[in-house]
Amino acid sequence: MGNLIKKSDGILFFAGSLFCMLFCFLLCTLFCSCANAFFDETEEITFYIPQWPPEGFDNFASPESHAACAPNNADSSESCESCVFPELYKWKISIVSSAGCKTFYTAEKSVTVAARKNDILSVLAEPLVVAGKSSSQALQAECCKNDVSVKICESCKAPKIISFFMPAGAVYPHCTGTGSCQQLTWEQGFTAFVLAQILIQNNEAKVLVARFNWQKFNDTICKKIAASADSETLGQRDETAFYNPWLLLGENQKQLFDGICSMNFKASLLNLKGVYSVNVNELFYESAQARKVGGFPLTSFVPENKIIMEKKVISAKKDSQLLVLNNDFSTGTVLKLDAKKNILQEQVFLPIINSKL
Q1: Cys bridge to 124: 94, 188, 217, 355, which one at CB 3.0-4.6 A?
Q2: For the segment 302-341, what is each residue's pLDDT rounded down to a tens digit?
């Protein structure tokens, strides 16, 4: 009996030792795999921000406005684009992934972020611009030339910043065409915005969005923008209005997002409905108020501004409001296209955001 007890004790001891060794092995394996996941599966990615002012607009600034840009130097190399667009203050950068959201501000031409390998990223760069015609440097010089208190001077020197333009963006690592995944473009900004909104609003959709074909989604939008811009009948008929993807938001937004999250997306969801071409000459140059403002109105979707300047048309959606930036860079015009396609317009002051960014 004593020998039997000793034998069973030995078996239990051996089994216990084997269990402990197995547990330690699994614990070590788990720790090592977690350590590798934490330290090894991240990468640094550099994203390149678009030029500001946007390139390609130098043919649209008049000689008078170009002279106003550099009144003391006729040979100045300052681009005419700076007469068409307001001065850039900083870029608002938003990085959204399955791991969370990060926002920061920069005046640099590129940003480098750390991300987990194989993770899908929405990268957005929104230009925050200075309101008014005077540059922030000129404003500061003019503001404090008089003998005023430091407090008043500092308050006056602060530039008035507005948020108006839709962001440029990219969905990493889903490239569009032959372009770089790391170059942020205005055309890809809408796709990046949609991804960001889904990731922020729906935690359960994180796995689904990773499986969605963002490259095809993005390619379809970019092709629609290019095709509408190249159309010979652009603006001549309502059905040939310029394709502004941001007009998809609003009443069709839920349908669009649900289609992506349900993995039952149809390309027809990217078709614009109730969008018409509006002649900007009739809106902005034939009324007394418009003549006071002068210059070109600017739309929030940067590529459309070239269409406004070349074709003198802007895309507006029925039963919704469209805000355009007046040439004084401080006020806007709210356009509303009613059910009978009558245009209603109202002048507004654009809200100023915090300049201490």
Answers
A1: 94
A2: 999 999 888 888 898 887 788 888 877 888 888 887 766 7
